[in-house]
Amino acid sequence: MKKVKSILLLLCFCAVTSTHAQSDTAFTFLKTIKGDFADFNVDNLDNIYLITSTNQLKKINGNGDSAGVFNDVKRYGNVSSIDVTNPLKILLYYKNYTTVVVLDRFLNIRNTINFRKKNIFSVQSITTSYDNNIWFFDDQDFKLKKIDEEGKPLQETTDFRMLFDSVPSPIQITDKENFVYLYDPEKGFYIFDYYGSFKNRLPFLNWTSVAVSEKNMYGFSNNKLFSYELNSLTLKEYKLPAIFGEYNAIKAINGKVYLLKDDGIYIYQVKS
To answer: What would the pLDDT profile of 76-103 be if each residue is shown by its tens digit?
Structure first.
């Protein structure tokens, strides 16, 4: 097993060395969505989910039109994450209360899951699975687990302490294209198949605002955007231009970069 891991890591490092530097002109301004927003996320259909300063969750479609409003964001305190992996099923996760609120595509409540009632007390992140269930990492059992919308256990991996010499502590989970990606900034990506078997590791360290789309991984580090093409195993590097100015949050997805500023969301196209 250790020999297999070493080979996988060697392959990963080979892929990392094939970087391609880009110029500052790689970003084209598209538009601004004005408003006072505290947080946001973007799904694979370019819908934008905005948490406003008045504690609403608003959904804006790709044309800039309102597509839903949820008025009870503060029900369990501050939202830790907005999972929009499936645009038809939005997950609001409240880490301090280990509680998930499940919304439909119009942002109406479908269900609420309290992990504590399932004897699960430490969960950093969650995501929607390919089959519309929920993945999460149990920090007490050191296992990646899947439950249904009612909280019923469906699947779990081997204890990570049996798989790895140094156990990762993933802060983000993404389900894309037949794989589940767990990201630990200090150790990189750990990739599992849908049966819970470990497949690979990508040592991209200290990335922030990580995202995985159908073709690319994205992350930011040292004032640069990194885009890793999953098919070609090519890592592209983009220096963030001065025109971005100061921002409160940043995200790359679907070939675009979204900047959260004091007066709204600024959207740029990334040239390939």
So the answer is: 999 999 999 999 999 999 999 999 999 9
DSSP notation for the chain:
-HHHHHHHHHHHHHHHT-EEEE-GGGEEEEEEEES-EEEEEE-TT--EEEEETTS-EEEE-TTS-EEEEE--GGGGSS--EEEEEETTEEEEEEGGGTEEEEEETTS-EEEEEEGGGGT---EEEEEE-TTS-EEEEETTTTEEEEE-TT--EEEE---HHHH-SS----SEEEEETTEEEEEETTTEEEEEETTS-EEEEE---S-EEEEE-SSEEEEEETTEEEEEETTTTEEEEEEPPGGG---SEEEEETTEEEEEETTEEEEEEEP-
Q: What is the pLDDT of residues 57-77, one digit of tens each?
A: 999 998 888 999 999 999 899
Q: Percent of the chain, pLDDT > 70?
A: 91
Name the domain count of the chain: 1
CATH of residue 100's domain is: 2.120.10.30
- The CA–CA distances, whole Å, from 221 to 132, 204, 226, 265 equal 32, 10, 8, 20
Q: What is the extent of the structural domain holding 179?
A: 2-270
Strand 234-239 with 19-22, pairing: parallel
- Is residue 256 classed exposed, middle or buried when 0-12, 13-18 and 19+ CB atoms within 10 A define those classes? middle
* Residue partners of 207: CB distance under 8 A and separation at least 6: 183, 185, 219, 220, 221, 226
